[in-house]
Amino acid sequence: MAAVRRPVLLGLRDAAVRGNPTGPGAWTASKLGGLPDALPAVAAPRPACARCAEPLALVVQVYCPLEGSPFHRVLHVFACARPGCGDGGARSWKVFRSQCPQVPEEAAQDPQKQEGGLAAEDWCEGADDWGSDSEEAPAPRMPWDVGKEPASAKGADWTAQLQHLCLQDAALGAPRPTRPGGGEGVASPPAAPQFLPHYICVVDEDDYRDDCCAGLDHARSLLRHYVQREGVDLEQLLAHGLSTDGDEKYEKTVMKSGDQTFYKFMKRIAACQEQILRYSWSGEPLFLTCPASQVAELPACGHCGSQRTFEFQLMPALVSMLQGANSGVSVEFGTVLVYTCEKSCWPQNHQMPMEEFCIIQEDPDESLFK
Fold first, then answer.
1. What share of the chain is helix, strand, coil (3-state, %, to 5)?
2. φ and ψ at 28, to 5 degrees?
3. Quick check: 24 and 40 in contact, CB under 8 A?
4. Closest of 38, 172, 150, 173 to residue 100, by C-alpha
5. Strand 9-16 vs strand 198-204: parallel, antiparallel, or unpaired?
6. What own/partner pairs with CB < 8 Å and gap ≥ 24 does 210-219 have?
7. Is residue 349 left, alpha or beta, with left meaning phi > 0 and alpha meaning psi from -120 to 50?
8. Residues 53, 54, 55, 60: what is their CA dihedral angle, to the nearest 10 degrees?
9. Cα distances (Å, whole numbers) of residue 105 to 48, 109, 120, 353, 362
């Protein structure tokens, strides 16, 4: 039986986030930068760097409920923004998954309340129906209008309908301060650095590629300059395999291009180099460098023991779009691949975000994306 090709959605930077949105209009919005928005009755994750112990900065927030699931679902990706620390691999990055019931229990028992409340089906109007291969791994229903404004714009009227609930005293990963003489104090934890927040809108990769053929000309230009700079024929190199011949220039090319993996990456993103995120639940990630050892070490879910599946990845264009509110705030990466529990497990009445797993691949040739 042939493998089912999973659709791919591309995330693009949209309008800047104005003010301090609250309620469902905040946590159903996908965005880059800013502060993490908490789902009702779930703590907002506030992790610290495993290298320097400083608070991590929010890189992206992705609202991604699953088809057939009774939960709203949000993923937060964090990184250390301190100079020289954000490129420290997985120790400087954290991913958390938060979930809450789509319809509160009391609203489900009262039809009148349910009519005036919010259901995930209402939030996903205009989004693609992803389908599903199995009952255990439902496919996501993305809350974006493909090619239109981000979901947050539709949520402007929701704030008045529901109160924004969160646990103010349960910041995940934030150590409790102590008094000089010992014991718990009342001082606030150190503030996390912030990137300027922007909404993320989404387009279908196939539709975008059909409408943006002009982008291929730019890609060909990039590859042509690359070949001229390195003095090799990249197409011929790939066609004849990658056996070493002792030539220094050849070895430099292999190191920079990451052989066929790098070439495939560049070719796939050519039509939309401004993409900052690629979403494909249980689909195929787009690797920048050979991932064999990294994928082989992919850990199971820390709560239920299920395997983790690929969900989305962050793309090189995002690096230049992460502008710090303060100087000295930055992160560097080639691509960040996020893997989550394939069952999206969530115990009843659970109130703390669950940590997921990410793989960080460095950019082998940063100049190609400028």
1. 25, 20, 55
2. -95, 5
3. no
4. 38
5. antiparallel
6. 212/271, 212/272, 213/271, 215/270, 215/271, 215/272, 215/273, 216/270, 216/271, 218/270, 218/273, 219/266, 219/267, 219/270, 219/271, 219/273
7. left
8. -90
9. 34, 7, 15, 20, 45
Amino acid at 135: E
Q: Which residue has the higher pLDDT, 245 or 163?
A: 245
Residues 6+ apart with CB under 8 A from 33: 17, 57, 58, 59, 194, 195, 196, 197, 198, 322, 323
Contact, 258 vs 368, CB < 8 A?
no
Averaged pLDDT score across all residues of the chain? 74
Between 74 and 264, whose confidence is greater?
74
What is the C-alpha to C-alpha distance for residues 35 and 193, in angstroms, rounded to an integer? 9
259 versus 361: which is more confidently predicted?
Answer: 361
Contact 137, 120 (CB under 8 A): no
Q: Where are the alpha helices (DSSP H) in the chain?
A: 24-27, 105-108, 111-116, 120-123, 151-154, 205-211, 214-230, 234-239, 248-257, 259-269, 292-296, 317-321
Provide the token pair at 45: 């994750």
**What's the token pair of residue 113?**
């309340």
For the record, the structure tokens of 352 come out as: 């703390």
Residues 97 and 89 sit within 8 Å (Cβ to Cβ): no
If DSSP codes are grouped into helix, strand and coil, which group holds residue 147?
A: coil
- The pTM (predicted TM-score) of the whole model is 0.71
Least confident residue range of 200-214, 233-247, 271-285, 337-351 = 233-247
At 101, is the secondary structure helix, strand, or coil? Answer: strand
Q: How far apart are CA 332 and CA 93, in angstroms?
A: 11
Distances in Å between the Cα of 68 and the Cα atoms of 130, 164, 255, 344 are 11, 24, 44, 12
Query: What's the CA gap between 338 and 74, in Å, rounded?
Result: 13
Count of other CB atoms within 10 angstroms of residue 237? 19
Is 36:95 a contact under the CB 8 Å cutoff? Answer: no
